Amino acid sequence: MSKIKIVFFGTQDFAAVILEGLLQDPKFSVEMVFTQPDRKVGRKQILEQSAVKKLALRHNLTIKQPETLKNFSLTSLTDSSVAVVAQYGLIIPKSIIDSFSKGIINVHGSLLPKYRGASPIQEAIKNGETLTGVTIMLMDEQVDHGPILSEEGVTIGADDTFTTLSHKMAAAGSTLLLNTLPEYMEGEIIPQVQDHSLATFTKLIHKDDGRIDFSQTADQIYNLYRAYTPWPGIWCMWADKRLKLLKIARAERTLEPGTVLIEHRNIFIGCGQHAIKVLELQLEGKIVMSAGVFANGYKNFDQVHLL
């Protein structure tokens, strides 16, 4: 069988793993890569290339980085009959979906129809799920709404963060795609319509979503920490400054919600049920500190109430 020509749409690390799998498999030929434009990041606003662009450059692939795909035409650019998308981050209009005779295959980070939308991996962790998975599906005009080609479950470990779970899911998604795509192209898979009545939805995450509500249980706050590590992180306010809690653990302590206890250079914060133990933190405008160093430098932190 001749190689399957593919146009790839993707941006983040998860997508780069999917692209790498396609590039390493002799059954496929990646003809073109679409990824988001380079973005300025950090305090110094350094222009950063996406993980997918870095990989595409190493393989000398043709790269497109439009700000939007609205009014974008692919007709003269490729003769590929199928495209693959993973964590692209831009809306793909119907005109582009329809330009591929076999459609666009989406590698989505949940077991659809659960957790459609922009943040399925974070939402599963935040909600304390122990099982998630990846879905290979055909795109349509609605978000994660199209028929399913294949699915595979992935276990969520008790201490998995967004980063560690993403790595597991990307590996599973890559293998599943490589097995599914040839069968789909040969007509051996019948796409299955989702049960839309069971659909749940996730949102685009913003920096302020990481603010801690200490009336929640220690388990809920720990899940938020796992979901939002490394970005946007979790934080609270102390002395009119943002205090980032960079590493935490659950603790079998009983304290008033939001109340700090310093004990033998350990920092505990009360929650709606039990407490969290802070291992590493950063006060706005200051360097990252271990709990011991912070407790030694900010002795007035003991018994304060955090908001």
Observed structural traits:
307 residues; alpha/beta; Rossmann fold; Methionyl-tRNA Fmet Formyltransferase, Chain A, domain 2; 2 domains; 7-stranded mixed beta sheet; elongated
Order of strands across the widest beta sheet?
5-2-1-6-7-9-10
CATH H-level homologous superfamily name of the largest domain: Formyl transferase, N-terminal domain
In total, the number of domains comes to 2
Question: What is the CATH class designation of the largest domain?
Answer: Alpha Beta
CATH architecture of the largest domain: 3-Layer(aba) Sandwich
Give me the oligomer status.
single chain
CATH topology of the largest domain: Rossmann fold
Largest sheet: 7 strands, mixed
Could you explain the architecture of this structure?
With 307 residues, this protein is an alpha/beta fold. Helix content is 23%, strand content 29%. It has helices at residues 13-24, 51-58, 94-97, 120-126, 162-185, 218-227, 291-297; strands spanning 4-10, 28-34, 39-41, 46-48, 63-64, 82-86, 104-108, 116-117, 131-138, 148-155, 201-202, 234-238, 241-251, 260-263, 266-270, 275-283, 289-290. The strands form 4 sheets. The protein has a 7-stranded mixed β-sheet. Strands 12, 13, 14, 15, 16 and 17 form a 6-stranded antiparallel β-sheet that branches. β6 (82-86), α3 (94-97) and β7 form a beta-alpha-beta unit. α1 (13-24) packs parallel to α2 (51-58). The model has no long low-confidence stretch (mean pLDDT 95).
